[in-house]
Amino acid sequence: MLTTLKSMIRDDEGATMVEYGLLIALIALVALVAVKTLGTNLSSLFTTVAGSI
User: Which residues have CB under 8 Å from 51's CB, separation 6+?
Assistant: First the structure.
């Protein structure tokens, strides 16, 4: 029984999956913010160019 308990404590497969999930969520959040910022800047640029024409 002690051996089984030790193997359960050392099993970190679930923790690794959680870490990968958090990493993917962070990357998705950064990409979303970057795309939103880029879209806002491009919209502003096109509005400026259209106003000057």
Answer: none
